[in-house]
Amino acid sequence: MMASCFPSLVARLLVSFFLILQCVVEGKVSGAVQPEKYDRFTAGFRPPSVPLVVVDPYFSVWSMAENLYDDVTRFWTGRPVNMSGMMSIDDAVYRFMSNEPFLPEESMKQVNVSVFPTQTVYTFQQDGVQLVLTFSTPAVWNYLYSFPVTFLSYYVRSVDGRNHTVRLYYDNSAEGTVSDNSHFVVWERVNVSQNYDTMRIGNFHQNYCYQSNDRIDWGYWFVQVAADPSVSTSMAFTELSRMSFITNSPLPPDDKNQPRPCDDMTPALAVAWDLGVVSPGITLSRSLTLAYDQVYSINYFGTLMAPQWKQEFGSAEKMLAEVNRDELIMTMDSEDDRITSQLYAEGGSNYTTISSLAWRQATGATVAVYNYVTDETWMFMKEISSDGDVSTVDVVYPASPLFLWNYNHSFSPIKLILLPILNYANNETAKYGLNVPYNLSWAPHHLGTWPVCDLPPNRQEQMPMEESGNMLIMLAYLVKRDGDLSFLEPYWNLLSIWGQYLAASLPDPEDQLCTDDFEGPSPHNSNLAVKGMVGLRAYAYLLEKKKETKEAEELQKMDLNFTKIWWLDSMDGLTELHSRLQYNLHDTWSLKYNFLFRQVMNFTDIFTDEDITRELNFYMTRINEFGIPLDDRQAYTKADWQMWVAAMGTQDQFETITDLVYSFADKTPNMVPMTDWYYTFTAELKGFRARPVVGGFFSRMLLNYAVKA
Q1: pTM, rounded to two decimals
Q2: Which of 271, 306, 622 shows the shortest CA–CA distance to 451?
Q3: How far apart are CA 95 and CA 122, in angstroms?
Q4: What is the pLDDT of residue 518?
Q5: How far apart are CA 641 and CA 624, in angstroms?
């Protein structure tokens, strides 16, 4: 596993972390997004929140304002995790990031922001100088994925034909390293190599994987720049560092008064560059690297699991010394180009715009770790903002289209996320230190509360048909895509239990919770029944591939009969034929997003294409200004489920629903990381933020890929 996830990494001699000073012909700057790529995005889009440093559920910093300088930068919860930026142009100092105290009152003018799948690009302009600021996070499916880094790249040029003297400034506080700002922090310089100036800051008391709140309380935040005569760094009181830059004085010496509370004379890691003269026709660039060493990321039933990158590098210092910034930026540029070109070809600029934002949000809810017990890579997904659970199956499922569509044969995210769930359900936790027998006849709901996996089955939120169907469907698609059954060898008895549960519980789920549990009870739920029937067919598919043909055929016949009963019990309407919300409720309806994997898996023997066409046509009569309600009970909806439904429609239907979701994201008054639960008349948030379920925006991509395959 290790060799496959990190192919010949060291052999590639990843040295020379980045080139700090580049003077190149304008338009040829390494890492600068080329203008033609912006044409794939809708001009003027205002993201509800802009991802800056979005690596994992703990290393997650956003701009929750229209302009980067309108507010402090924040953790996904809304708590400040401040990063600031200033530029001096001919001795006049402006801020371009944050509006914290001790920053200039005047700001540069922000003229554009674009969110790519792996990079966010801001453009500012002031006094004849343009600044392009790029935040680059390697969220791509290969050995880069687990790297806890974000590169900040600054590109400066004159746009008025004149020479200008320019200086740049960056700092960040320690707020991103503590769960409470009263906690004591420490800071130090780290000897990475003579080529770099590296600082780190972190909690004085390192309590790994301690469960307190959504913010981390251990590990270290690193800031690194290339050693160069034009750069200076400092670890000192924020006010002193900022005022030194504003007055064109040297940064203060390192503060020795430590440890001290994070909010006491707020210590900050600061960087200042003197670019000298910026001449017309020349672009000057500077870079810095932000990294976070969590030391340990997950506690899996008693075993602390370190992030995946440590398996290769051992320490953050070694990683920072060997990672090649320029190579990573080139990879991200290439991936952004590939992904956005495919999105644009499928759905145009609105689809590209919202899906690129969704990519950053969904990948930023996961972490890759190395399991030393079984010598393999695992991944975990956080149910951000709704419960904080670890790898909630009915959160992994709606997010799965992104992770199933865009994958690497040696790094398959959904498989790596499902393995720890399968281990738990298969009663394999004792070897990790905590024996938690799993004795339910259906699949688990989740593993624990982030970052601790320790949940006994009697404390699960029970969703028997929902989670059993989800697990079987995702596993069946992995087998269909990869043609490999071997990873399921230890789990066939488990899968049989789940399959038999579905067979015994259909065609009526009776009084069960489904993933939309926030709506309250919904007995005899016809959409949940679809999930169960597609899940049962997925189990039959797995048996087919295992050459257990007789049982597979019996289950298929049983499932076909269930779908016929479903049609008779759920159909409603005379002039507008459609399916009901519940078998027993006339004059009702709901979005039947659970049909999607019937299409993806090409299960044409259950339900019909006409069933799905009829549903889509009906939904198009229920459109409000910002979307289609989830069902007839409320005016709110789910963005992810709308995009699942859109994926199954005609091109016109797909683009119509996509445009509604785009309009919501652009117009919502709630400036938080994109919610998936909002009102269709006002675009106001109903609940949730930053959840990975927006990976469902890639349903159309997955469906088309699966059909072609």
Answers
A1: 0.94
A2: 306
A3: 13
A4: 86
A5: 16
pLDDT at 323: 86
Instruction: With CA atoms as reference, report the closest residue to 636 among 671, 587, 673, 675.
Output: 675
- Find the helix or strand (DSSP H, E) in which 468 lies: helix 464-482
Whole-angstrom Cα distance, residue 450 to residue 212?
Answer: 9
Q: DSSP string covering 205-265, please? A: S--TT--SSSS--SSEEEEEEE--TTEEEEEEEHHHHHHHHHTT-PPPPPP---SEETTSS
| Residue 348 CA to its chain's centroid (Å) | 22
Plot region of 388 (φ>0 → left; ψ -120 to 50 → alpha; else → beta): left
Sign of the dihedral through C-alpha 61, 301, 433, 493: negative
Tell me what pLDDT residue 143 has.
63
Distance CA 644, CA 102 (A): 47
Q: Is residue 110 helix, strand or coil?
A: strand
Question: Residues in the chain with pLDDT < 70?
Answer: 1-36, 142-144, 707-709
Q: How far apart are CA 175 and CA 652, in angstroms?
A: 47
Task: Tell how strand 448-449 and strand 452-453 pair up.
Answer: antiparallel
Task: With both helix axes pointing from N to C terminus, report the angle between 464-482 and 492-505 in degrees, rounded to the nearest 10.
Answer: 130
Distance separating alpha carbons of residues 685 and 692, to the nearest angstrom = 16
What pLDDT is stored for residue 36 in this prediction? 62
Q: What angle do CA 201, 205, 210 make, to 5 degrees?
A: 105
pLDDT at 462: 94
**Contact yes or no for 645/622 (Cβ under 8 A):** no
